[in-house]
């Protein structure tokens, strides 16, 4: 094996916005360097880091991607795709796009995935790890990339639809978000299949 790839998603549960899947890659013989990105050199799930810390880590990752020390890709599946095909299909297609966009030979890759995720079948060397984003640095970094990328997308939607607070709750089902939906209706970025029970 030449490459180690970590895969994780962000945005499975929100009421609005896309789901994001990141494929994060490093040369296997360089994997021990990944802990340098984390506070106290301890693997952290992106959800257990503050937004400023995630952004700081992401900035360092972008610098090292430019230097070709690490590689990552992020793909999105829109709320429209989620509504038409379901969240499992949306995650699967975004995952396939991200890992294929790395442009690597499947037989040279060891792929580690979080939770219940699975890579395309041609990646014979793959392992799904429960709570992998708390155990494997390469998955945790994929988690951070996916989370930061999706949050930035929601900030764009916040400017486009300022009545909903997307920049604060990132599309998740907070009390204020539900109140905004009842008051103003749904936007084109809401997942209507997630909101069938909300009073119009």
Description:
This protein is of the alpha/beta class. Helix content is 38%, strand content 17%. A 5-stranded mixed beta sheet has the order 3-2-1-4-5. 40% of the residues are buried.
Reported CATH architecture: 2-Layer Sandwich
Number of domains: 1
Number of strands: 5
> What is the H level of CATH, i.e. the homologous superfamily?
Ribonuclease H-like superfamily/Ribonuclease H
> Which fold does the CATH topology refer to?
Nucleotidyltransferase, domain 5
Task: For the largest sheet, list the strands in their spatial order.
Answer: 3-2-1-4-5
Low-confidence stretches: none
What would the principal axes of the Cα set say about the shape? globular
Portion in strands = 15-25%
Structural class: alpha/beta
Radius of gyration, CA atoms, in whole angstroms: 17 Å
Largest sheet: 5 strands, mixed
Q: Please give the share of residues in helix.
A: 25-40%
Number of helices: 6
Summarize the structure in short.
The chain has six helices and five strands, in the order ββαβααββααα. With 200 residues, the chain is of the alpha/beta class.
What are the salient characteristics of this protein?
200 residues, alpha/beta, Nucleotidyltransferase, domain 5, five-stranded mixed β-sheet, 6 helices, 38% helix
SSE blueprint and pairings:
Layout: E1 3-10, E2 19-27, H1 51-66, E3 71-77, H2 79-85, H3 87-101, E4 109-114, E5 126-129, H4 137-160, H5 166-169, H6 175-184
Parallel strand pairs: 1-4, 4-5
Antiparallel strand pairs: 1-2, 2-3
Helix pairs in contact: 1-4, 2-3
């Amino acid at each position: 094996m030449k490459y180690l790839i970590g895969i994780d998603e962000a945005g499975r549960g929100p009421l609005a916005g896309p789901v994001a899947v990141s494929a994060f890659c490093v040369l296997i013989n360089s994997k021990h360097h990944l802990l340098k990105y984390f506070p106290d050199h301890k693997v952290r799930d992106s959800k257990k880091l503050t937004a400023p810390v995630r952004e700081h880590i992401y900035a360092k990752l972008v610098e090292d991607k430019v230097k070709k020390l690490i590689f990552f890709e992020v793909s999105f599946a829109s709320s429209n795709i989620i509504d038409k095909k379901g969240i499992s299909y949306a995650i699967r297609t975004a995952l396939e796009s991200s890992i294929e966009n790395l442009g690597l030979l499947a037989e040279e890759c060891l792929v580690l995935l979080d939770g219940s995720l699975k890579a395309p079948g041609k990646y014979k060397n793959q392992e799904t790890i429960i709570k992998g984003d708390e155990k494997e640095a390469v998955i945790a970094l994929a988690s951070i990339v996916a989370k930061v990328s999706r949050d930035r997308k929601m900030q764009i939607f916040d400017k486009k639809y300022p009545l909903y607070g997307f920049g604060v709750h990132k599309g998740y089902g907070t009390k204020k978000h539900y109140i905004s939906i009842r008051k103003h209706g749904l936007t084109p970025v809401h997942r209507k299949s997630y909101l069938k029970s909300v009073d119009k």
